[in-house]
Write a structure and sequence with these properties.
Layout lengths: L4 H23 L11 H6 L3 H48 L3 H9 L7 H16 L5 H21 L4 H15 L3 H22 L4 H15 L3 H10 L8 H14 L5 H13 L3 H12 L6 H16 L1
Helix pairs in contact: 1-3, 3-4, 3-5, 4-5, 5-6, 5-7, 6-7, 7-8, 8-9, 9-11, 11-12, 12-13, 12-14, 13-14
């Protein structure tokens, strides 16, 4: 094993120190070579074996420390490489629509401290919850599980736009089980995290789309919920269809045709604003969107029904 430059410098320093002692002994009159039995020489140096042994131990200790550092660094690199490999597999499965395989893969690493892995696990948990064959009991458990993963992702990396996005989504899902008061109170938190996600990554069309959904939801809030909100909160959350439309169009500009639901909601928002011509334009696009997921199929059906009504 080659010694590091720092170890060679240490050895030279030690050798230099030994030579200096020898020179000092000669200067004071010791006879023979350094370490000989001359009176003054032996007083200064004494037996050189302990010194050599100490030098050897120092070198070995330093070498051991160097080896430890190399191994530690290699372990970190290996761990990082493993996480990257898992993320690549996860993204491939997500793009392929392999929801259950993705969940099975990621749950093996649910104790991970990596934010990128954790928010993907939150998304996968939620996707399993959304499957039509998932029972209501399982769905509720998965919704709360997803929130826990998203929360941990955010704690590990507050600069991750995806962690903010999925934390907001999961809080919204949990609100369905905790009553209208909690749901309205959570709306402020949800909006804050969507806005933060957009701030961190203005090119993420999904975050912009979700902010549009937030606006659309409060624009169409039923009158009785508005009344409850006013009783419970001094300044309840509110929005308009025009504001929702702005976000849906902005998402489409960032990434055209990225999501069938954005197309559907553009059509539905124009319907709310009584613009049937533009509503039909976007609903036709939603109906013709290639169905890669179960949600895409549901959106195709809804768009077709709305077009029939026009």
């Amino acid at each position: 094993m080659a010694l590091s430059p720092r170890l060679w410098r240490l050895l030279r320093l030690r050798r230099g120190a030994a030579q200096s002692v020898c020179q000092l002994a000669r200067a004071r009159g010791s006879r023979g070579h350094c370490g000989a039995r001359g009176v003054l020489g032996s007083e200064v140096i004494g037996n050189t074996r302990p010194f050599k042994r100490g030098l050897l131990f120092s070198a070995l200790s330093y070498l051991g420390f160097e080896t430890y550092q190399v191994i530690s660094q290699a372990a970190v690199v290996h761990a990082t490489a493993k996480v990257e490999e898992i993320l690549e597999q996860a993204d491939y499965l997500y793009e392929s629509g392999e929801t259950e395989k993705l969940y099975q893969l990621l749950t093996q690493y649910k104790e991970s401290e990596d934010a990128e892995l954790l928010w993907r696990l939150a998304r996968a948990s939620r996707d399993i919850a959304q499957l039509s064959r998932t029972s209501e009991e399982e769905k509720k458990a998965l919704v709360y599980e997803a929130l826990e993963y998203a929360k941990r992702a955010l704690e590990k990396n507050e600069s991750s736009f995806a962690a903010h996005k999925w934390y907001a989504i999961c809080i919204s899902d949990v609100g369905d089980y905790e009553g209208i008061k909690v749901k309205i109170a959570n709306a402020y938190i949800i909006k804050e995290h969507f806005e933060k996600a957009i701030e961190l990554n203005p090119k993420d069309a999904t975050s912009i789309h979700l902010m549009g959904i937030w606006c659309y939801t409060f624009a169409e809030m039923p009158w009785y919920q508005r009344r409850i909100a006013k009783v419970l909160f001094a300044n309840p959350p509110s929005s308009t269809y025009e504001e929702a439309l702005k976000y849906f169009h902005r998402a489409e500009q960032v990434d055209p045709n990225f999501y069938s639901k954005n197309l559907l909601l553009l059509g539905k928002t124009y319907l709310k604003l009584n613009n049937k011509k533009l509503a039909a334009f976007w609903l036709v696009k939603a109906k013709g969107y290639p169905a890669h997921t179960e949600e895409d199929k549901q959106i195709q059906t809804e768009a077709a029904q709305l077009l029939t009504g026009l």
